[in-house]
Amino acid sequence: MSEKKKKKTGIELVLISLVVLSIVRQFFLGSYHNMFLGILTLILFMVPQLIEKMVGVTIPAGLKGVILIFIFSAEILGEINAFYIKIPIWDTILHTTNGFLMAAIGFALIDLFNRSEKFSIKMSPYFVAFVAFCFSMTVGVVWEFFEFSMDWFFHTDMQKDWILPTISSVKLDPLGANNPIQVTVESLVVNGEEWNFGGYLDIGIVDTMKDLIVNFVGAVVFSIIGIIYLKQRGKGKLASSLIPQVNEAYGADDKKESGVDGQNSKK
Q: 234-261, pLDDT tens digit by residue?
């Protein structure tokens, strides 16, 4: 690896410095749980490097910057500084970005196989993009399973509640038929105490569907970028800055290995 690749980018240094300051601040505040989140953030910052080593790709600076900002926004800003509460669309922004990033990782994995000498099947750009899209959506669904499990078994509130002003349900039909009856909810009573929310408290259904929809949007956007990239193969600056590149060393190793296998088979 060259010295240029070893050096951290400016955005990496800034984000790492901010995380370290956040950890020190939480220590003096006595918030050891948030200290752990800060340390976890520093560990997650190493994920791009692990992906590069394990998968055999080079993550361009643009995509790496998006990944680091996403981690910082989710842990430091979202959890420690409560941006999830202070900024209502914060969770939506992050789930959209997550759909984009997971599609990028899925795209890199499939493109890696597609260009490897070990595999004789070559896939079209549309199929590669489709598989990347499916990978992103699968990760999104599994994450929603995790959120539901945490809320169900550990009584957290990862699936944020929504206030809905109306109910439409067949359960409200006085005749017991299969006719949805719409009712406007003006107040809510919990354990005898009235809460004037202006609606009823939805416990996670809307949040889950919203997260999956914006994950879908992010995955579609990256899939389109991926198709353009594969058709032009690196000509576009935007696509090149966001698409993980297959390491030449990986391809060379494949060719070397296939050549050795070929010689062995001849013997």
A: 566 777 777 777 666 555 555 454 444 4
Tokens of 117: 């000498």
- For 162, phi then psi, to 5°, come to -125, 150
**Which pair of structure tokens corresponds to residue 90?**
């914060």
Q: Which two tokens stand for residue 162?
A: 């929504």
| 8 Å CB contact between 220 and 133 | yes
What tokens appear for 210 in the block?
A: 């919203």
Q: What is the DSSP string of 68-136?
A: HHHHHIIIIIIIIS-HHHHSTTHHHHHHHHHHHHHHHHHHHHHHHHHH-TT------HHHHHHHHHHHH
Residue 128 burial class via C-beta count within 10 angstroms: exposed 0-12, middle 13-18, buried 19 and up: buried
Q: Hunting for tokens 């809510």 — which residue is that?
A: 188
Single-letter code of the amino acid located at 9: T
- 3-class secondary-structure state, position 190: strand
Task: Give the pairing of strands 162-164 and 166-169.
Answer: unpaired
